[in-house]
Amino acid sequence: MTDTYTKQFIAMRYWLLGREYYSALNALEFAAKYHTGKRKDGKTKEYFHQLSIGRYVKSIATSLEFPEATLATVFLHDICEDYDVSVDEIKERFGEQVSRAVMLMTKVFGDYRKPDTEYYRDMTRCKIASVAKGADRIHNIQTMIGVFTYEKQKEYIEETETFILPLLKEARRTFPEQEPAYENVRHVLVSQIELLKAVHEAHEHSGSH
């Protein structure tokens, strides 16, 4: 029996083929060769994260000016930070547009970690990275419960409210042609945050730890 991950990977592959998104397809398969481990729950395939984000971006693709480049960026967004793949190699394989967005989404370069204000400010100025980062956070929040401590979940919520929601707002103003996409991402994030806060409140009232 084919597992859910494999079915979703195959479905994504054929969707990209059907739209002749060959660069995004190459990115899908290139990144899959690196992300072969498990997520923090110790059960889910590591690459399910990128694949899940890609499935969401598919749903807003008609609102994006560069849907193929955005999908390619989604598949590649962790690869420079987590593996020995340089931005130059991404540029050579996938072009300037994708490599720039991947670079903007990469927070840690070797021993250097970008300050939060600089990291989010720079993504605000990119049509691709701003959408991909919002979509990335959607999946992070969706998969936190049962994996992260309540304290870590609260940190993610605070970071989302402090940086990512303002990023989406500013990018929407800068790139009004993508407004429906930004509004969709924002709505999903706000809904998730409200749900998590309700869960946390119930948890605190119950006195459980």
As laid out across the biggest beta sheet, the strand order is 1-2
Shape: globular
Unreliable stretches covering 5 or more consecutive residues: none
Number of strands: 2
Could you say which structural class the secondary elements and strand pairing correspond to? mainly alpha
Mean pLDDT: 93
- Indicate the proportion of strand residues: under 5%
What is the tally of helical segments?
11
Largest sheet: 2 strands, antiparallel
What is the H/E order?
A: HHHHHHHEEHHHH
Distance between the termini: 39 Å
Radius of gyration: 17 Å
Helical content (DSSP H or I, runs of 4+): over 70%
Structure notes:
The protein is mainly α and 209 residues long. It contains eleven helices and two strands; from the N terminus they run αααααααββαααα. It has a two-stranded antiparallel ribbon with strand order 1-2. Helix 3 (48-59) packs across helix 9 (127-142), helix 8 runs parallel beside helix 10 and helix 9 packs antiparallel against helix 10 (150-174). It is globular and about 55 Å long. The mean pLDDT is 93.
Outline:
The chain has 209 residues and is an all-alpha fold.
Descriptors:
11 helices; mainly alpha
Write the layout of secondary structure elements.
Layout: H1 4-18, H2 22-32, H3 48-59, H4 67-76, H5 79-82, H6 87-94, H7 96-105, E1 108-109, E2 112-113, H8 116-124, H9 127-142, H10 150-174, H11 179-206
Antiparallel strand pairs: 1-2
Helix pairs in contact: 1-2, 1-3, 2-4, 3-4, 3-9, 4-7, 4-9, 6-7, 7-9, 8-10, 9-10, 9-11, 10-11
